[in-house]
Design goal:
Blueprint: E1 3-6, E2 15-21, E3 28-29, E4 34-39, E5 44-48, E6 53-57, E7 64-66, E8 70-74
Antiparallel strand pairs: 1-8, 2-4, 2-7, 3-6, 4-5, 6-8
Length: 75
């Protein structure tokens, strides 16, 4: 079962900068592991894996992403 990861809505913000991936494309990740850092005009947050599996990245460091856009998939 695939789990689609989206940048979570943070207050009234509609987009965020994907500052840094903390994992590599195709890596195995564990539930609760920090995946990336996302920054809005008001805050920087770490995004954690909601489940364990192999991750496929759909956004790159430095991308500005809409907060409901898929940035990665865990299989």
């Amino acid at each position: 079962m695939n789990i689609f990861l989206t940048a979570e809505t943070l207050g009234e913000e509609t987009e965020a900068d994907l500052v840094d991936w903390l994992v590599s494309d195709g890596a195995s990740v564990a539930q609760g592991e920090a995946l990336c850092q996302i920054e809005t005009s008001k805050t920087t947050s770490e995004f954690e894996a909601p489940a364990s599996g192999r991750i496929t990245l759909h956004a790159e460091e430095g991308d500005v992403v809409e907060l409901d856009t898929v940035i990665a998939v865990i299989e």
